Model the fold of this input.
Amino acid sequence: MNVRIGAGFLAAVLLVLAAPASAQTAASPAVIARGDSIFHGAGNCYACHGAKAEGLVGPSLTDAEWIHSKGTYEDIVKQIHEGVPKEQAKSGIPMPPKGGSTISDDDIKAVAAYVHSLAQKPGS
Done:
């Protein structure tokens, strides 16, 4: 069987394979929406980061400034899962693991996708 692959398809495959790992974690709108729901609900994230995630006791999550990591999706997952101990908190205010909630690992990934999407600017 002789199969021809279009140049556009081949270029798209090569771009995906060459993209950095964090670019390959782009979440679907459904996952981001689920993360938003958890952020504003069971995760209680809004209690410290504000209803608009612009910061209260915890820092803003809507800009490109990350004080405890590089702000990659993977970093955000890890930070939510592990929290930020008082000794490492640059503000002096700790973040308990999972923000003190009982959300699941899948919930953490959804919240991380939502938080990651907040700081992404068009064209970045």
In short: Confidence is low (pLDDT under 50) at residues 5-24.
